[in-house]
Specification:
Rossmann fold, P-loop_NTPase, four-stranded antiparallel sheet, branched-chain amino acid transmembrane transporter activity, alpha/beta, amino-acid transport, Branched-chain amino acid transport system ATP-binding protein, ATP binding
Length: 250
């Protein structure tokens, strides 16, 4: 396994009176796509938000690229090279697709070659370049959110359930884009409920329950063990067909 780019050790997070993360231990290997799986309410989204500093860890260590993220502000965490796409996408509905992308280009003007690469992944971004992002379909908004995360190279990309609520053809487009990002050697932490997506993309996997990581290992190992899937997730990967490469739909 590659050396970890991101490490969480004994991380606890309280939100008001609620103790959500209860000692999370997690390693995200450099250059791999790590799946973060678990039932609803297991603490997956809270883990991503805690890494980004949107919610502050009350105990434990968060290390990224050899430095601590504990106590660092969200803007500074992003500036260190972490792109984060939340479950609600976080796009600016009143701004055009172009303006949404420009805001993500922290280092200056958008790189033309990289932008053309993004257009090959998501042709609708070019088609709706000057239209308000809020007027797009749910799937197209998700493409804007992912495209915005890709507009500059980052050390780590974190996506929170990017396939949620998408039509199958849009899921296929999203999987193809993440596969292309993975083939470039990117480090990705991906929260998913769609186990077929997890199977199609994951190198390593961590499974959460009740605010802790209860299993970690190779995604292929989990995909091959139906009993382990049932015990950890209450589901079987074989129950859902894997996404197939497809063109982007509406």
């Amino acid at each position: 396994m590659s050396a970890p780019l991101l490490t969480l050790a004994g991380v606890h997070t309280h939100i008001g009176p609620y103790h959500i993360l209860q000692g999370v231990d997690l390693q995200v290997p450099r250059g791999q796509l790590t799946m973060l799986l678990g039932r609803n309410g297991a603490g997956k989204s809270t883990t991503l938000r805690t890494i980004m500093g949107l919610w502050r860890a009350s105990a434990g260590a968060i290390g990224f690229a050899g430095a601590s993220l504990r106590g660092v502000g969200t803007a500074d965490i992003a500036a260190r090279g972490i792109a984060y796409v939340p479950e609600n996408m976080g796009i600016f509905s009143d701004l055009t697709v172009r303006e949404n992308m420009l805001l993500a280009a922290r280092s200056g003007p958008m790189d033309g070659a990289r932008l053309e690469w993004i257009f090959t992944l998501f042709p609708s971004l070019k088609q709706f370049w000057d239209k308000p992002a809020g007027k797009l379909s749910g799937g197209q908004k998700q493409m804007v959110a992912i495209g915005r995360a890709l507009v500059e190279p980052r050390q780590l990309y974190m996506f929170d359930e990017p396939s949620k609520g998408l039509a199958p053809v849009m899921v296929n487009s999203m999987v193809a884009a993440l596969r292309a990002l993975k083939e470039q050697g990117a480090t990705v932490l991906l929260v998913e409920q769609n186990l077929a997506v997890a199977q199609a993309l994951g190198d390593s996997v961590a499974v959460m329950d009740a605010g802790r990581v209860i299993h970690h290992g190779a995604m292929a190992q989990l995909a091959a063990d139906a009993d382990l899937q049932q015990r950890l997730l209450g589901l079987h990967l074989a129950a859902a067909p894997a996404p197939a490469p497809a063109g982007e739909g509406a």
